[in-house]
Amino acid sequence: MPTPDLNGQHYEVVIIGAGMAGLAAGIRLALADKQVIILERHNASGGLNSFYSQAGRKFDVGLHAMTNYVPKGTKGTPLIKLLRQLRIPYDALDLCPQNGSRVVFPDCQLGFNNDFAYLESEVARAFPKQIDGFRALVEEVRTLDAFNLGAIPTSARQAVQRHINDPLLEDMLFCPVMYYGSAQEHDMDYGQFAIMFRSLFFEGFARPLEGVRVIIKLLQDKYRSLGGVRKMKCGIRQIHAVGDLASAVELESGDIITADQIISTAGAVETARLCDDQPTNAANDNIGQLSFTETITVLDKQPADFGWNDTIIFFNTRDRFRYARVENDMVDPTSGVICFPNNYQYGEGRQLEEGFLRVTAMANHDKWCALDEEAYLAQKAFWYEELQKVTLSLLPTPANGLTLDAQRLASDMFTPRTVRKYTGHLNGAIYGAPNKIKDGRTHLKNLYLAGTDQGFLGIVGAMLSGISMANFHVLQGD
Amino acid sequence: MTEDQVKQIVIDIITEIAPDEDTSDLKPEVNLREQMDLDSMDFLDIVMELRKQHNIEVPEEDYPKLASLDSCADYLTPKFNAK
């Protein structure tokens, strides 16, 4: 039903999606006094990095860790740049650094934390013949022009193999970089690898005590204070094209909003399919193939009480690490990520009231979406247990007899179906399309992409993407 | 509006958009990017604030004229006085 306050309205810029990228783009445009509206299909902001409450508990949808963490006062890094661009003070984010993380493979482990020297010493310990090659790779990654929006993608595997010739070390470096994350199977663009390597290893992990909602609320408040308009439960049905220009968006309700420019964070393929001059199967070759499932277990003790002090564990139990779509089963439990949101340095007297354990693994979107409700719940229950078992096999047995079963207060689990339902991203692909559109351009001159499919990943990446695309396509040459 | 006043306006804008930068001892003839950690996005913001606060338009092809405080003064003072 068209509503009087939206139908027929005109905005200089329409932003599709109130996730990290959309909110950040909105702030930049509002700062420049543009008339901007953000339209979000869900009733909550955050998109792929949102939050929710259940039975009085607060949960994050995607946040294990905010990567790109640097201490206050560091210069020239993505986090510091974006805080300046958004005019948000560093302290407002409440970023608490990680305790430390590990990459765990059969017979080999590498520890790392927010001090890069530790990872370097671990590589020297576990792979003494590779340390020179590792240092050469690090130097190359440090100086690469990774944010070049015009660069042609090249193979990260080949680039790394120029310096490292031990496949185990190669895999152990790719495992965390791919999980945090890559939209491509087996390999990734070297520029993307460099961006992720820097954000995980040169920079680091942090988390606000209250989780991702701290960041989202900060962005929402800033945007509102600058006069930005945001409408929720406003899904887009179509983008109207006239020649090579987008003229308006049509909402699910039938409301038509005209715009001079549109920034879409819905995804490359999703956006193409919204355009009324494109076929419904547009960009079929660029749909994300990688989707995930994640279990969340709430415990009545802190992970440290179990003897579990890691912040994140990236694990692989196969002979050769495989990062690719799940073919033959609902879930591939042979590799994934274990996260303890409690294990950050929140400061004196500050801790999460309950213990949390999150386990992520790859899942087959089509199989999960094909299940009827009863089978869906049964499969969730089965795979929840399987992922807890894998986790227990990789962690030290608590000396004091604590068990997950005895200490569990509650659990939740999301599947590719959940991600698809709440974000609209095809295949529930959290990391989006395999081929990124680095310059954010589409077939329409005034329609641009930002977010996961423009290519900057993670919370900081998404915000930088919104900022960059707003700056580049709307504000520059204004 | 004198050139010194224009330089102060530019310094004030930089302080606003980059509060963590030290603007106390800037050499007017040296490129601003060499004295502070400013990138192209920051210069976009300087242009934005000139428009918002002072109604001065700087087209994209003129961005290089803002490289140093001296060049800012050369370029902007006539624009301020033409208002």
Brief characterization of the structure:
The complex is a heterodimer of chains A (478) and B (83). With 478 residues, chain A is an alpha/beta fold. Helix content of chain A is 33%, strand content 21%.
Distance between the termini of chain B: 11 Å
CATH class of chain B: Mainly Alpha
The chain-level structural class of chain B is: mainly alpha
Q: Biggest interface in this structure?
A: A-B, 17 and 13 residues
Low-confidence stretches of chain A: none
Counting copies of identical and different chains, the oligomeric state is: heterodimer
Mean pLDDT of chain A: 95
Main sheet: strands, sense, barrel of chain A = 7 strands, mixed
Shape of chain A: globular
Helix content of chain B: 55-70%
Number of helices of chain B: 4
CATH hierarchy: architecture of chain B: Orthogonal Bundle
Largest sheet of chain B: none
CATH topology of chain B: Non-ribosomal Peptide Synthetase Peptidyl Carrier Protein, Chain A
**How does the overall form of chain B come out from the CA principal axes?**
globular
Give the count of structural domains of chain A: 3
Task: Output the CATH homologous superfamily of chain B.
Answer: ACP-like
Number of strands of chain A: 18
> Gap between N and C termini of chain A, in Å?
36 Å
What CATH calls the topology of the largest domain in chain A is FAD/NAD(P)-binding domain
Name given to the CATH homologous superfamily of the largest domain in chain A? FAD/NAD(P)-binding domain
